[in-house]
């Protein structure tokens, strides 16, 4: 897709993230891996986070990035793991799906907590650790990989997959709340969420209609948008295929 085709990208070049550091969770495979590659080709120094050290190392070797192996379910350990890193772009792509039968009444407290830890608490812990530095330096991008299933409109939160849908709805709320706290880009930090659509990854399955590249495109685009504190790009929003969609 032509990076200037739609939306508020503003002027970009292939090196517009040169000098920036991007931390991408879920970078060992699927959408996170493709997003990490897209940010690296835009010039960013990439740090990938995932559990599988071999898969993550090979993904990071391919893009000249650094592997930071961590189980994000260990939410309490996140701050220490990223301590001292100066990160300009945070992409929360790691997530786990809940079991197919997990209606609200069929969900155990254990599954509820396990899904919430990776899908909502870990993004919060990374935001807490890394976004204060972005605000101080007056430049940052936070992109949260949400899901249509977590929307309060359309196909979202309409029953089933309760831990996953509710965690993603919480991630949407975290996104909007944080963006407002950061004055909607006027402190130099853009905070947005994106629905990648149903993609052919381990999570989406081989029969999903969209490719990994299609699913990763909007997240990369959001990270690369031009913005300035005096004229911020639209932020605190939910995006799908580079267009805003209702929460
Ligand atoms: N694919 C879809 O159709 C679809 C649709 C809507 C939304 N999304 C969202 O898009 C994002 C990416 O999804 P995907 O399809 O690429 O998923 P995926 O193929 O299942 O990959 C998930 C990634 O998250 C990492 N991860 C999972 N649990 C982790 C943990 N406890 N600690 C650290 N890393 C962990 C995995 O790495 P390790 O196993 O190495 O830890 C892997 O890199 C997710 O947020 C998902 O909810 C996907």
Describe this structure in words.
The protein has helices spanning 30-41, 53-63, 78-82, 109-137, 162-181, 212-224; strands at 21-25, 45-50, 66-69, 89-92, 140-145, 189-194, 238-240, 243-245. With 247 residues, the protein is of the alpha/beta class. It has one domain: NAD(P)-binding Rossmann-like Domain (Rossmann fold, 3-Layer(aba) Sandwich), CATH 3.40.50.720. The chain has an eight-stranded mixed β-sheet with strand order 3-2-1-4-5-6-7-8, with helices on both faces. The protein is globular and about 45 Å long. It starts with 20 loop residues before the first strand and ends with a strand. The relative contact order is 0.16. The site of NADP nicotinamide-adenine-dinucleotide phosphate has 29 residues, from helix 1.
Topology, please?
Blueprint: E1 21-25, H1 30-41, E2 45-50, H2 53-63, E3 66-69, H3 78-82, E4 89-92, H4 109-137, E5 140-145, H5 162-181, E6 189-194, H6 212-224, E7 238-240, E8 243-245
Parallel strand pairs: 1-2, 1-4, 2-3, 4-5, 5-6, 6-7
Antiparallel strand pairs: 7-8
Helix pairs in contact: 1-2, 1-6, 4-5
The chain binds NADP nicotinamide-adenine-dinucleotide phosphate (NAP).
Biased composition (Basic and acidic residues): 238-247
Region (Disordered): 227-247
Pfam family, one: adh_short
């Amino acid at each position: 897709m032509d990076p200037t085709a739609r939306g508020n990208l503003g002027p970009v070049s292939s090196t517009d993230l040169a000098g920036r550091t991007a931390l991408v969770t879920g970078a060992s495979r699927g959408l996170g891996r493709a997003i990490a590659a897209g940010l690296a080709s835009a010039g960013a120094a990439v740090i990938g986070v995932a559990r599988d050290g071999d898969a993550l190392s090979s993904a990071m070797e391919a893009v000249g990035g650094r592997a930071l192996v961590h189980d994000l379910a260990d939410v309490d350990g996140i701050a220490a793991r990223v301590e001292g890193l100066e990160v300009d772009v945070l992409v929360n792509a790691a997530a786990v799906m809940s079991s197919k039968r997990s209606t609200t009444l069929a969900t155990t407290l254990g599954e509820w907590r396990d899904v919430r830890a990776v899908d909502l608490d870990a993004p919060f812990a990374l935001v807490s650790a890394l976004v204060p530095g972005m605000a101080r330096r007056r430049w940052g991008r936070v992109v949260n990989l949400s899901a249509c299933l977590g929307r309060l409109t359309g196909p979202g939160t309409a029953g089933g997959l309760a831990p996953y849908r509710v965690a993603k709805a919480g991630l949407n709320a975290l996104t909007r709340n944080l963006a407002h706290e950061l004055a909607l880009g006027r402190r130099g930090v853009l905070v947005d969420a994106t629905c990648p659509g149903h993609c052919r990854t381990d999570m989406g399955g081989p029969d999903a209609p969209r490719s990994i590249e299609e699913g990763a495109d909007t997240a990369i685009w959001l990270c690369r948008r031009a913005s300035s504190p005096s004229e911020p790009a639209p932020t605190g929003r939910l995006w799908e295929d580079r267009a805003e969609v209702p929460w």
